[in-house]
């Protein structure tokens, strides 16, 4: 249908077919009847440069691993290679010596291998970009790898505990003291070598909150948290525990070598060190379950975050405050901020986001700003959650 037009004065009023206005230049709002000035249309407004806050305050992260994580990858690869070699040696030596204590130490080395390989896999997987399916990326693979490592250690330890109980019950076994002593000595050297490889002389500095290597800067005024790669630090602590166990196995092997009649020291050592191993993995299991259940990070207090948001100028109340983690160091926060009618929403958003990043080390923050209403005080959804 051809449009009809009526001319009068300095303006032209006409009926327009909406399909005729759907081209690339159709930046104006379509109407069936509208007034169009006779002068040339003004130019479209140019986009205003965005102030750098919220998620736009940092440059786009570069693909691949950061230098700190590359260093962690090299350390974990070297320690994993040493661990695999000496684990195979302990399995052979434990079999030749008929020693469950040596096999128990080999099982713990197997758990170390699994943990380090899981960390290496997580480092590689975390470089993959986020997708529409995995909007947070693949960071939680580190937590799943830690869970698999703990479960495998508990299964192997359970089998060794059963065999140790059978040995104490029947006492029909023989221990080769020389082979046990040699294997235990090698195990001590292996753990010393792995501790040297994993030792971090100084904590590397952090480059912001965009990677899993980030550690929170502080929980409150005057309280700082250690920095450094979490996977390497956890592996180093685990190796120190294995070193103590290897020293205990070495002491038992010395006793059996010089006093063969005390061969019960082998299953007794298996009991003691298995209990120690299970106890040492309990904190890891607790942290993993806390992450998988999306609990509040251990290094961040709910009240501290709430009070920090309430202290932002213009904020009257907060609700729907949620704190959780993708990994032990990748923390996420979301909240609604009720502000005064006179407050600047952009300024409040920038200040609140900055505080969550700098004071608590949140890697991702999602804040919604809304005008305060008196009815919020009686709203059931706006109430704070009770204490656990």
UniProtKB/TrEMBL annotation:
InterPro entries: Cation_efflux, Cation_efflux_CTD, Cation_efflux_CTD_sf, Cation_efflux_TM, Cation_efflux_TMD_sf, CDF/SLC30A. One of its GO terms (biological process) is response to zinc ion. NCBIfam families: CDF. Residues 1-15 have a biased composition (Polar residues). It holds the Pfam family Cation_efflux. GO terms for molecular function: antiporter activity; metal ion binding; zinc ion transmembrane transporter activity. It is a multi-pass membrane protein. Probable proton-coupled zinc ion antiporter mediating the import of zinc from cytoplasm into synaptic vesicles and participating to cellular zinc ion homeostasis in the brain. It catalyses: Zn(2+)(in) + 2 H(+)(out) = Zn(2+)(out) + 2 H(+)(in). It is found in: Cytoplasmic vesicle, Secretory vesicle, Synaptic vesicle membrane; Late endosome membrane; Lysosome membrane; Synapse, Synaptosome. This is Probable proton-coupled zinc antiporter SLC30A3. Belongs to the cation diffusion facilitator (CDF) transporter (TC 2.A.4) family. SLC30A subfamily. Residues 299-372 form the Cation efflux protein cytoplasmic domain. Residues 1-29 are annotated as: Disordered. Residues 78-293 form the Cation efflux protein transmembrane domain. The chain crosses the membrane at residues 76-97, 146-166, 178-198, 235-258. One of its GO terms (cellular component) is synaptic vesicle membrane. Keywords: Antiport, Cytoplasmic vesicle, Endosome, Ion transport, Lysosome, Membrane, Metal-binding, Synapse, Synaptosome, Transmembrane, Transmembrane helix, Transport, Zinc, Zinc transport.
